[in-house]
Amino acid sequence: MASGNILPIALKRNRLLQQMLLSANNYVSYINDIYSLRKEVKHDDCHNLVAVIKNEKNVSWEEALDESAAIIQQEMKSFCEYEKILFEQSWMFDKRCKNILKRYLVGVKAFMRANIDFSIKDSFRYNEILKINVNVEQHLR
Question: What's the CA gap between 33 and 74, in Å, rounded?
């Protein structure tokens, strides 16, 4: 459920939509990992994407951040590609399903954007913001 829209079964079972939602979830999780990195390292949390990349590949923090940013960019790219394909194939859904899907995806995108806004502006946990090159503005407006 996103933005008060409950998806019909036909949409819930759609593999493209499932992949799209997985990309959205990964995107939000990985963004959180970047913004919470200092806090999690301080508390020896080993489940952070950046820390995992640093340890597994034996690279610097900067290299691990760069690779994490690239992964985030890829998740956003995948999300947008899945959305494009889904709407190209939307002939398989009736008008009601298409409208629900559009509203649902507005909610998903709002969630993705809100996660960034929360991380940057509102969260006391992330008072030292790491600067990374993750261009999301063009995709989430």
Answer: 16
- Listed by start position, the domains of the chain span 12-126
CATH code that applies to domain 12-126: 1.10.600.10
The greatest distance separating any two alpha carbons of the chain, rounded to the nearest whole angstrom, comes to: 51
Instruction: Return the residue matching tokens 């960019």.
Output: 73
List, for residues 127-141, the tens digit of each pLDDT value. 444 444 444 444 444
d(CA 21, CA 40): 26
Count of CA atoms in the C-beta half-sphere (13 A) of 127: 2
Nearest 5°: phi and psi at 6?
-95, 125
Distance, in Å, from the CA atom of 122 to the CA atom of 91, rounded to the nearest integer, reads 41
Report pTM.
Answer: 0.79
